[in-house]
Write a structure and sequence with these properties.
2 domains, globular, alpha/beta, 6-stranded mixed β-sheet, 232 residues
Length: 232
């Protein structure tokens, strides 16, 4: 199965300026995703960016940056699917052989591993699924424990606990996307979907699952790296 890894790294982040190349534990944020992709079984991995600076940093780390993304696909409101479709069409138009699947690897989730990538590829290759998306267990933040607010009154949703203060262990486990891996068959992506009708899960370790949007997230990621990943 030929799979194109696409790392979307636009240059216009407002929450954390320069986020994709901001140093995390001594190296650019983008480096973590480039390294995991390089050690994986992806056929090829490219960086899609509108920024000359990001492109230069990526190339300096051995990254493949075959084009600069058009401005209209690098705005705050630009959606992921058109960005991925553009990247796929661009590399194939430049002479690359057709791909069977596309994997989006967001640099803002830096701690997914090559093993996570390979497990996702294996899940898709060994099934008829349309896609594989990485998730983590919500654990104590289970939706059954959540409430609506009407003014300052707490109201139970229809999916609330069976009884007050029900232990988490009695609740059916639920999972949330962590943003690390979106693996999609070509036909599904070109039909304007990342998920399709049959989506499988690649479950990741919540302890090292970090999604960086703010300076606080950066500080937390630094702590996670020092606490759990540095020795590896």
């Amino acid at each position: 199965m030929r799979t194109l890894g696409i790392i979307p790294a636009r240059g216009g982040s407002k929450g954390v300026p320069g986020k994709n190349i901001k140093p995390l534990a001594g190296k650019p944020l983008l480096a973590y995703t480039l390294e995991a992709a390089r050690d994986s079984q992806l056929t090829r991995t490219i960086v899609s960016t509108d920024s000359e600076e990001i492109a230069e940093v990526a190339r300096g780390m051995g990254g493949d940056v075959p084009f600069l993304r058009p401005e209209e696909l690098a705005t705050d409101s630009a959606k992921a699917i058109p960005v991925l479709q553009h990247a796929l069409r661009a590399v194939e138009a430049a002479g690359d052989a057709s791909y069977d699947a596309i994997m989006m690897l967001q640099p803002t989730t830096p701690f997914r591993s090559a093993a996570d990538i390979n497990e996702s590829l294996e899940i898709l290759a060994n099934s008829e699924a349309d896609s594989v998306i990485s998730v983590v267990d919500v654990e104590a933040t289970h939706p059954a424990r959540m409430k609506y607010l009407e003014g300052d009154r707490l109201l139970d949703p229809d999916f609330c606990e069976a009884y007050e203060n029900q232990p988490r262990q009695e609740l059916q486990p639920m999972y949330i996307r962590n943003g690390a891996i979106y693996l999609t068959r070509r036909r599904v992506l070109l039909a304007n979907s990342l998920k399709g009708q049959d989506c499988r899960a690649q479950v990741q370790d919540k302890m090292v699952s970090v999604n960086i949007d703010t300076e606080h997230d950066f500080a937390y990621a630094e702590w996670v790296y020092e606490r759990y990943l540095k020795e590896k």
